[in-house]
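Quick entry between incubations.
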Amino acid sequence: DGGITQSPKYLFRKEGQNVTLSCEQNLNHDAMYWYRQDPGQGLRLIYYSQIVNDFQKGDIAEGYSVSREKKESFPLTVTSAQKNPTAFYLCASTRAGDAGANVLTFGAGSRLTVL
Amino acid sequence: KQEVTQIPAALSVPEGENLVLNCSFTDSAIYNLQWFRQDPGKGLTSLLLIQSSQREQTSGRLNASLDKSSGRSTLYIAASQPGDSATYLCAVMTTDSWGKLQFGAGTQVVVTP
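Done. Structure below.
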């Protein structure tokens, strides 16, 4: 079945450590996104990529980094510079082309807790 | 900047009642508006997408309307069931930010048997 796989599902990190969240899709989608969700809040965009080897900052990119070396993969690194990294992280993807008609497909999410 | 608001933040209804969920947005220059469902601790599932040229979309018991001029969308769920209990989020893609969705905070729905 086609879909988006995020791993790990749960991750615990000590302060000062970098961690990388994996996102893989087999939908042949061009665009991929990382969102952060905090309790009682909507999703906020961290980074997005519309094509391989290119990505743009979203609304809350500080303390995060990404790469897009393959169409299928869009890993997110949460660096030690991120002041409040405990959150639920969601990866999504969609086809490029007609922006008005493209439904966003989400992974199951990764919950990061800083100890 | 686009602002998306969902009121109420939480809603509880008895089984069988119709659900009415509201979403408002400040910038009417949109490509589309999408409604999503999120179960606790899970990712989002797309329910309906309404393009800017459309007034409504329907899927089974779900119907979503869009009024761009007033900056509003409404999601109707007919004859609610306990399985409809979830958080429902709306998101808007504006024309000056292709590919980027602005999300509301969601409405948490509980349908009691």
